[in-house]
Amino acid sequence: MDDTAKVTLAAAVVGGYVLGRTKKGRMALSIATYLAGRRFGLEPRQLATEGMRRLGEMPQFAQLQEQLRGRFSTRVVRR
């Protein structure tokens, strides 16, 4: 790790400590996440769609999805 990276890491740690002590950590994290998302062109709807698609591809979640569909359809039919 070069000196610039060490200084950046130290500044991030100190900044995080100060923000956390002043109870502004949550807001700072929200702003940082928002700015990072804008920088990389991420959209919440696109991320949610991609996440759901990937979960659907996993066999464990496919079984859970089938169970939930069965329970939901049973409740709808009972009403």
Task: Summarize this structure briefly.
The chain is mainly α and 79 residues long. Helix content is 86%, strand content 0%. The chain folds into 2 domains: 1-42; 43-79.
- Total of DSSP H or I helical runs spanning 4+ residues: 4
Question: Which structural class is indicated by helix and strand composition?
Answer: mainly alpha
Question: How many E strands?
Answer: 0
Kindly report how far apart the N and C termini lie: 64 Å
List the domain count as a whole number. 2
Q: What about the largest sheet?
A: none
Q: Approximately how much helix is present in the residues?
A: over 70%
Radius of gyration: 21 Å
The best one-word shape is: elongated
Mean pLDDT: 77
- The ordered H/E elements are HHHH
Regions with little confidence, pLDDT below 50 for 5+ residues: none
Strand percent estimate: under 5%
Describe this structure in words.
The chain has 79 residues and is mostly helical. The chain folds into two domains: 1-42; 43-79. Helix content is 86%, strand content 0%. It contains four helices and no strands. The protein is elongated, with a radius of gyration of 21 Å.
Topology:
Blueprint: H1 3-21, H2 25-39, H3 44-57, H4 59-78
Main features:
mainly alpha; single chain; 2 domains; 79 residues; 4 helices
